[in-house]
Predict the structure.
Amino acid sequence: MTIRSYKGVKPVLGQGVYIDESAVLVGDIELAAHVSIWPLVAARGDVNIIRIGARTNIQDGTVLHVSRPSEKNAAGSPLMIGEDVTVGHKCMLHGCTLGNRILVGMGAIVMDDAIVEDDVMIGAGSLVPPGKTLASGYLYVGSPVKQARPLNDSEKAFLAVSAQNYVVLKDEYLAEI
């Protein structure tokens, strides 16, 4: 794995974290316990911060980045990802906030200052535009996303199961190291 400092700040890794050797993490990034970062993920916490909550998995080819502070946005746009989040393959998360128990479908893009509340599914290939809020408890699909329907109880339960499946998988990978 490649973990690099930027301006003297290096990523901080929680207990039981797995980072694939092909992933790159730079700068002010904090990973909570049991996070998994899979092949070819690029995460750059250079001009703002990235925080990833416990048991979250960031799958292959995903890009994580932020926006710098500016006159229009004094704090810039950090990337904040909650607990038990599954981010599918080849997603782009840029300066947004994701709550807990979220599934971001493969190839989805979530832009600056978007807010995704808890217990949400975002369909594969969807685009969440800048500043959009996705309310808790729904499936969102499309480009730009639209609220498709409420999640049923089994879908809501699956959100935590998906994250736990990746905790088990990353532990199997860690056992090989």
Q: What stands out?
A: The helical segments are 153-176. DSSP finds one helix and 20 strands in the chain. The domain at 2-176 is CATH 2.160.10.10 (UDP N-Acetylglucosamine Acyltransferase; domain 1). Residues 96 and 113 are 5 Å apart (CA to CA).
